[in-house]
Specification:
The protein is an alpha/beta fold. It is built from twelve helices and seven strands. The longest helix has about 45 residues.
Amino acid sequence: MAKKSGLGKGLSAILEDVEDAYKQDLDDNKSSTLVKEIPIDQIKANPYQPRKVFEEEALRDLSHSILKHGLLQPIVVVEKPDGYMLIAGERRLRASKLADLESIKAVVADFEEEHLRELALIENIQRENLNPIELANSYQELIEQYGITQEELSDIIHKSRSQITNTIRLLKLSDYTQKLLTDAKITQGHARVLIGLDEKKQQLIADTIVGQKLSVRDSEELVKNLKEHEASTAHIRPLKEKNESYQALMIAVDELRDAGFQAKKSSHKLIIDFSDEREAERFLELLK
């Protein structure tokens, strides 16, 4: 995909808008961005929300914290004709609902409709604990949406290039392995060991890791042994087949000589010299 003009800079600007929105004070009347209490039932979910998994226990803990200390950081919404759309802070909104609160403190930001997806992605990357697969999809979507490189994304969201690269590589894993990683049954360290294996071997190793509670180091050793075994088997099999073919060829030569033919082996060939046409016909009858 060709890089879209100015979008890298635009992405940085979106990130700055999110940061500015969080910095707004309740008494700041000079900005078009306002912070106010909004009825929770007027807030709709963001359809571009990249986060799919929310841990119930973590939400309950956050809910108790909000009840005890209040909401320390407002959510971010945009105003719509029929209410508000959530841009950032879905965990805080869900926790507030668990706490049976009727309203929530929110930054009412002025963003273009075209930026809603990018805002949701960036806010989650910067502020929420996405699982590794959700994070990988967010990185990949930003790169594809803006036609930028991993290096440029690294500069924009202030994450290391290696972290972005290693996270995106997780998308090469099978669906089965990705599910184990999403469910926190294996770690990113475990998952990276499995990249490059076919789907069947991934499941075999992943199940072994979970079943035996292997460390990343043990998992690396397991995969190494598997690859060495496959390489050894791949070497032995053709050698064995070659030996079997050679033996069969030698038996054929002996049998033909016993039948009175001039037969010999040359490389992988069986050569028979016929003294006359009758001998050739005899050989054909023998084949039948």
